[in-house]
């Protein structure tokens, strides 16, 4: 684990894997809730957790340096279920990359248990991990100018659901009517970092 | 709609509603947003007796014109500009009483980029996640002002400040940005960091609320490939593949995959918000506090 200072009031904690970053994030949230850590923002990402708005960064960095990271992620919350029609336009390509018939893609995807590693790109857009390594796929060579809201998509190790229509280069395997982001709702984001997620196939898939 | 409202007569190049933003939601991919020149927004709020969190209007380069439906107290600050009420000159940097139905105009910025208009009671559009700020990256908050739009106003909180005038900032000849190195300075050669803190840059016309883009010598990387996406802070000096540093401002993305060579001191970002395209930029390295 490396703790890198960022400006005058932030720290970037870098670990060696995505799993470790998720465990570190859970541990930092726990410490903040217990009053052992002060940070305005705790922002997990692929291999790091950013602590922003830290009053005494050098002191906090020294305390973090030897922090033991629990190996087991908390499982206290039930998975969020997202119904999906596995009817995406990139289903045939993903099936070819996985070397399975197209109708198998939904079955394999829905069998995995996911966790929101981090959010970014757009409010409420979660980067979900949980697919086996052999199911990781590259981005499309040319991004689409408009991906419809509710599209369920793959890129690299991640699954994501587009909270609203936006440009995007991920491989689209399905769609959902679930509202991922609604600023009028509490909480606005359905998927927050650390949340467990399952995709449930619906309709002709 | 009540008569406590403001009709937009001329929206200007880009005028947005801004307050202190919505920090605390970065982990959900929500940018902080908020007034780019935060001290200027706080000052105009104080001039009209608003609490510091009240929403104001932020103009870009060429001002705007509005017509209150009933008499209001306003104050204009930030980038110096002509202020008129029904064509008659009114003071900049002081409380001004505008009669109902009169036309309040903010002229083009004489220097700087962004002028701020506070109205007693604040701009009372519906808050989103605790803030009324327009976030141009993610589209949260009210849309930028459009001609003919009507903005609701809140009830004035208290008496306006008794001041004669506030000092007008002089035209910034040079934008000096103090930086601390890292967190990804090791992705660049030592020459690249020296280039950043010794060579001359200019503010690019492609700058916006997301970032202050620069023109100048490109910074060469020593590490190829992409950085796994990581959290970004306000003031981060991110270096995209073209090598020209970009300073992240209030609407910056919460995560990014280009390395951050340095971070600008928060206290210098208000000046960055007022640096017009073409302004010389000098990055100077300071030790971490």
Automatic annotation (TrEMBL), chain A:
Superkingdom of origin: Bacteria
Keywords in alphabetical order: ATP-binding, Hydrolase, Nucleotide-binding
Single GO MF descriptor: hydrolase activity
Domain Carboxyltransferase as annotated: residue spans: 1-191
Alphabetized InterPro entries for the sequence: CT_C_D, Cyclophilin-like_dom_sf, PxpB
Gene3D superfamilies reported for this sequence: 3.30.1360.40, Cyclophilin-like
Keyword DNA repair on entry: no
Pfam family, any one: CT_C_D
PANTHER family: 5-OXOPROLINASE SUBUNIT B
Protein name: Allophanate hydrolase subunit 1
Organism: Streptomyces glomeratus
Lineage, top ranks: Bacteria, Bacillati, Actinomycetota, Actinomycetes, Kitasatosporales
TrEMBL record, chain B:
Domain Carboxyltransferase: residue ranges: 27-289
Record key words, sorted: ATP-binding, Hydrolase, Nucleotide-binding
InterPro entries: CT_A_B (IPR003778), Cyclophilin-like_dom_sf (IPR029000), PxpC (IPR052708)
Name of a matching Pfam family: CT_A_B
Keyword ATP-binding applies: yes
Signal peptide from the UniProt entry: none
Matching PANTHER family: 5-OXOPROLINASE SUBUNIT C
Protein name (database record): Biotin-dependent carboxyltransferase family protein
């Amino acid at each position: 684990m490396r703790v890198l200072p960022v400006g005058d009031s932030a720290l970037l904690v870098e670990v060696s894997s995505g799993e470790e970053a998720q465990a570190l994030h859970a541990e930092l949230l726990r410490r903040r809730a217990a009053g052992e850590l002060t940070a305005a923002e705790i922002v997990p990402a692929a291999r790091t957790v950013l602590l922003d708005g830290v009053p005494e960064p050098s002191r906090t960095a020294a305390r973090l340096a030897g922090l033991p990271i629990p190996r087991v992620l908390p499982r206290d919350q039930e998975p969020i279920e997202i119904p999906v029609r596995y009817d995406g336009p990139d289903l045939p390509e993903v099936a070819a990359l996985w070397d399975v018939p197209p109708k198998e893609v939904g079955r394999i995807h829905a069998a995995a248990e996911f966790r929101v590693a981090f959010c970014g790109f757009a409010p409420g857009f979660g980067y979900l991990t949980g697919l086996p390594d052999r199911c990781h796929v590259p981005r499309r060579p040319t991004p689409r100018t408009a991906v419809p809201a509710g599209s369920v998509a793959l890129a690299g190790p991640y699954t994501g659901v587009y909270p609203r229509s936006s440009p995007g280069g991920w491989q689209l395997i399905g769609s959902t009517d679930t509202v991922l982001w609604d600023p009028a709702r509490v909480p606005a984001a359905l998927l927050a970092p650390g949340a467990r997620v399952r995709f449930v196939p619906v309709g002709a898939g | 709609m009540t008569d406590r409202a403001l009709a937009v007569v001329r929206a200007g190049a880009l005028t947005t509603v801004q307050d202190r933003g919505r920090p605390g939601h970065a982990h959900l991919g929500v940018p902080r947003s908020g007034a780019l020149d935060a001290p200027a927004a706080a000052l105009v709020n104080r001039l009209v007796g608003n609490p510091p969190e009240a929403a104001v209007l932020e103009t870009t380069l060429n001002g705007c014109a509005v017509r209150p439906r009933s008499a209001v107290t306003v104050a204009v600050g930030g980038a110096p500009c002509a202020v008129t009420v029904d064509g008659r000159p009114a003071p900049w940097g002081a409380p001004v009483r505008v009669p109902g139905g009169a036309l309040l105009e903010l002229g083009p910025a004489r220097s700087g980029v962004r002028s701020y208009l506070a109205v007693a009671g604040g701009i009372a559009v519906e808050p989103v996640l605790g803030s009324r700020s327009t976030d141009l990256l993610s589209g949260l908050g009210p849309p930028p002002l459009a001609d003919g739009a009507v903005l609701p106003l809140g009830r004035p909180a208290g008496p306006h400040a008794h001041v004669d005038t506030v000092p007008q900032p002089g035209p910034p000849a040079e934008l000096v940005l103090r930086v601390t190195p890292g967190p990804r300075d090791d992705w660049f050669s030592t020459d690249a960091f020296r280039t950043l803190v010794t060579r001359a840059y200019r503010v690019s016309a492609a700058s916006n609320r997301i970032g202050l883009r620069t023109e100048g010598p490109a910074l060469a990387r020593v590490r190829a490939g992409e950085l796994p996406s990581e959290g970004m802070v306000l003031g981060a000096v991110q270096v995209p593949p073209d090598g020209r540093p970009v300073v992240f401002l209030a609407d910056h993305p919460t995560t990014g995959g280009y390395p951050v060579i340095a971070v600008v001191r928060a206290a210098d970002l208000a000046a960055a918000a007022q640096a017009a395209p073409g302004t010389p930029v000098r990055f100077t390295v300071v030790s971490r506090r």
